[in-house]
Amino acid sequence: MTSNAARSLGEELRRVRVAEGLSLRAMARRLGLSAHSALVDFERGQRVPSPAVLAGYVRIDGVDAAVLRTMREAVVRERLRERSGEPVVVVGSQVGGRVGGLCAVLRAAARLLSRCAACVEAAARWFEKRGGRV
């Protein structure tokens, strides 16, 4: 199922391509992609374009990078929420990067640790030994 955020991002990417008068294949070539099938998936909201692909759209059309970045973050946030079933906090524009990945790992670890009281106590002792620093 395609989320609203994914659909909106896909529509914006399609709008940019069509406004430039480019076919899917021509746009793929301009973006340095080996196949146009990825663009089909992006425009349908089935895949999330990388920051590098979005930068290509900015370069080609001059569309506002912040708008595309915000739209992409909304898609990633929705997908993470769907997978985890929990609210997702996004730190800056690092969604899906190191910070987003670390947050996902920490959430998963917290879920696992919360199931074992002995593990929680051991983790708390370890944390205190380090002076409250990870």
Automatic annotation (TrEMBL):
Residues 13-68 form the HTH cro/C1-type domain. CDD domains: HTH_XRE (cd00093). This is XRE family transcriptional regulator. It comes from Saccharothrix syringae. GO terms for molecular function: DNA binding. SUPFAM superfamilies: lambda repressor-like DNA-binding domains. It holds the Pfam family HTH_31. InterPro entries: Cro/C1-type_HTH, Lambda_DNA-bd_dom_sf.
